[in-house]
Design brief:
Pfam families: YchJ_M-like. Residues 41-132 form the YchJ-like middle NTF2-like domain. It comes from Jezberella montanilacus. This protein is of the alpha+beta class. It has a single domain (3-134), classed as Nuclear Transport Factor 2, Chain: A, CATH 3.10.450. 17% of the residues lie in helices and 36% in strands. The protein is built from 3 helices and 4 strands, in the order αααββββ. It has helices at 27-30, 41-54, 57-62; strands at 79-93, 96-107, 110-123, 126-134. A 4-stranded antiparallel sheet has the order 1-2-3-4. A hairpin with a 2-residue loop joins strand 2 (96-107) and strand 3 (110-123). The chain is globular and about 45 Å long. The protein starts with 26 loop residues before the first helix and ends with a strand.
Length: 138
């Protein structure tokens, strides 16, 4: 099945609780970053999670604030992202937000969780990932 027709890895659902496809959700931002930026920090965070699932380094780097952007994003073939749960979305003003989330993964046959609060900034009408702070394990 083409990626566009598959359910979006971020797990987003419609207002009627119907799971969204990749194309209905994060795909429109990932596949058309130049013309269709994520409208808010929450959408950007979900699309960045999806980009990690799909190993889309170009999108991850393009949506990373330049002052914290690494030269590359290494992927681990043994790591499999399983699901995403958004705990809290906070918009402080029109140009700054945070998203607290838990992303579950499996690596080398063992389960794990990344619990992080990520900071986002909006510049020239686009949202960017600034940095994140890992939180205590759940």
């Amino acid at each position: 099945m083409p990626v566009a027709a598959q359910l979006c890895p971020c797990g987003s659902v419609s207002p009627k609780k119907v799971p969204k496809t990749f194309e209905q959700c994060c795909g429109c931002y990932i596949n058309a970053f130049d013309t269709t930026p994520a409208p808010d920090a929450l959408s950007l965070m979900r699309s960045r999670y999806t980009a990690y699932v799909l190993d889309n380094e170009a999108y991850l780097l393009a949506t990373w604030a330049s002052e914290h952007r690494p030269a590359s994003v290494s992927s681990d073939e043994k790591l499999k992202w399983l699901d995403l749960t958004v705990k809290k979305y906070q918009r402080y003003d029109e140009n700054s937000s945070t998203v607290e989330f838990v992303a579950r993964y499996r690596q080398d046959g063992k389960g794990g969780r990344l619990h992080e609060t990520s900071r986002f900034v909006r510049r020239a009408g686009r949202w960017y990932y600034l940095d994140g702070r890992e939180r205590d394990p759940l």
